[in-house]
Write a structure and sequence with these properties.
Layout: H1 2-8, H2 16-21, E1 25-28, H3 32-36, E2 44-45, H4 51-60, E3 65-69, H5 73-84, E4 89-94, H6 95-101
Parallel strand pairs: 1-2, 1-3, 3-4
Length: about 100
């Protein structure tokens, strides 16, 4: 189980601030109510359940994507889906932690 969690949290040593400064898009994959309760300014809200249908739109942005959620698990799942589709994506983990890193 620990290996699985580490896999989903991969990317904790990345310089997310530089990624964002260079145009990366933050995608918060929590549900709409969670997003409304607090989020990173400028983040897109695409619940993880909708990632597959939005993959082409995200890929067409031609920008790196940083996913985030409450704990890092859903953002890891979304990152995996996007990676499989050929999107440059990084799991930012918990949104409030990511916010402190950018």
């Amino acid at each position: 189980m620990l290996k699985l969690i580490k896999k989903f949290l991969k990317g904790n040593n990345l310089d997310f601030k530089t990624l964002v400064q260079n145009g990366a898009v933050i995608v918060d994959v929590r549900n709409n109510a969670e997003f409304r309760s607090g989020h990173i300014k400028g983040a897109l809200n695409i619940p993880v359940e909708q990632i597959r249908v939005k993959t082409a739109d995200l890929k067409n942005m031609n920008k790196p994507i940083i996913t985030c959620c409450k704990s890092g698990i859903r953002s890891g799942m979304a990152a995996s889906i996007l990676t499989s589709a050929g999107v440059e994506v990084y799991n930012g983990g918990p949104w409030n932690v990511l916010q402190g890193r950018i």
